[in-house]
Amino acid sequence: MMPADLTDSGAFGATLTIDLDALVSNWRLLGERAGTEAGTEAGAVVKADAYGIGIEPAVTALDKAGCRSFFVAHVSEAIRARKVAPDATIYVLNGLLPGAAETFAAHGLSPVLGSHEELLEWASFRQTGAQVRPAALHVDTAMNRLGLWPGEGLNLARERSGVIAAAGIGLVMSHFASSEDEADPANARQIAAFAEIAAALPDVPASLKNSSGHFLKGCPSYQLTRPGYALYGGNPTPGKPNPMRPVVGLEATIIQTREVEDGTQVGYNGRWTAKGRRRLATICLGYADGYPRNGSWTDSATGGSAMIGDVPCPFVGSVSMDLIIIDVTGAPQDAAKRGASVRLIGGPLDLETVGAGAKTIGYEILTNLGRRYHRRYIGG
Ligand SMILES: *Cc1c(COP(=O)(O)O)cnc(C)c1O
């Protein structure tokens, strides 16, 4: 066992703090928004190791709080979730791969079926008398990624005794392509296309909202929602204040500091040149910990920063595999010395800011959170 308290964690060089109470409180907040009182249930998307925070602790905490429906991408993830949530419904978004039905049955998993072939394969597996849970039907209303065309879905829905009945469909769903952008006209088109499908299957519970969907005006909640990013503290309303509680904090330790003269080149291939005398510090994490190399400030590109107190300290030179060099010239000397702690995620360094510093999105920062950090779980 790794020691759980902060005094010991100094030895690990980088500590990821995961607040499971905040996770549960975010799930409750989204449920309230979706209308749990009116009978809508908030599910939880826990694919990609629960967006990097750890699938077992996340599912355990949410299951205990009353979450009944989980979504993952892969069967391997579903099997891990099943171990800690023996009774929940676990949907596998990537659907039914050829010959995989036995595995779904063995673990009581629900495939999200997105093509005629998948429907037929699942239906014929059910006809053998196999004990399975209800499956979901995925209709693609914009992404051109997975799911039946809306027209195809409508045709099948209208053949009452057809393949939809034979496949034992217990949920019909679609996924937004740009719900974080309220102004995108694609949202209204998707809402309308999905409404037609849901109306054609009046006895089947429906699900449309991802995180940002909860904040879209004019979007019905149906019976089940599928938030992911916002559960983990990501902002579902980019550009507006974040209604969610932060779940993830990341701190790293300074290994050594040095002063460099004007014109000194720093890091691999000398991609950053000091302008004037600078004080630098080297900290205990790098791209092998999921910290993107694209977050480096170079002579020609902007990048991300760490914080010491409220002083931003830019990543200078190339982010290396295990180390990042930061410019601590603006920070007080005694707060920027060997053994001192530097913040990488948390406070003003929210997921969106960190993502933007690395020319990516908060989702990618979360799902790449390193496997060798000292992980400290609180609450739950
Ligand atoms: C990942 C995913 C979600 C969750 O989306 P967020 O934007 O993270 O809330 C919901 N539904 C489907 C089909 C997904 O693939």
Find the count of extended strands (DSSP E, 2+ residues): 19
Distance between the termini: 19 Å
Radius of gyration: 24 Å
Q: Helical amount among residues, as a percent range?
A: 25-40%
In CATH, what is the homologous superfamily of the largest domain?
Alanine racemase
Largest sheet, in brief, is:
7 strands, parallel
At the third CATH level, what is the topology name of the largest domain? TIM Barrel
- Mean pLDDT, as a whole number? 95
Number of domains: 2
CATH class of the largest domain: Alpha Beta
Which hetero compounds are present in the coordinates? Answer: pyridoxal-5'-phosphate
Give the strand content: 15-25%
CATH A-level architecture of the largest domain = Alpha-Beta Barrel
Secondary structure tally, helices: 12
Low-confidence sequence ranges: none
* Lateral arrangement of strands in the main beta sheet: 3-4-5-6-7-8-9
Features:
single chain; alpha/beta; TIM Barrel; 2 domains; seven-stranded parallel β-sheet; six-stranded mixed β-sheet; elongated; binds pyridoxal-5'-phosphate
Task: Give a description of the structure.
The protein contains twelve helices and 19 strands. It has 380 residues and is of the alpha/beta class. The chain has two domains: 20-232, TIM Barrel, CATH 3.20.20; 248-349, Lyase, Ornithine Decarboxylase, Chain A, domain 1 (Beta Barrel), CATH 2.40.37.10. A hairpin with a 5-residue loop joins strand 12 (265-266) and strand 13. Helix 4 (55-65) packs across helix 5. The longest helix has 15 residues, at 20-34. The model has no long low-confidence stretch (mean pLDDT 95). Pyridoxal-5'-phosphate (PLP) is lined by residues 45, 93, 175, 210-211, 226-230.
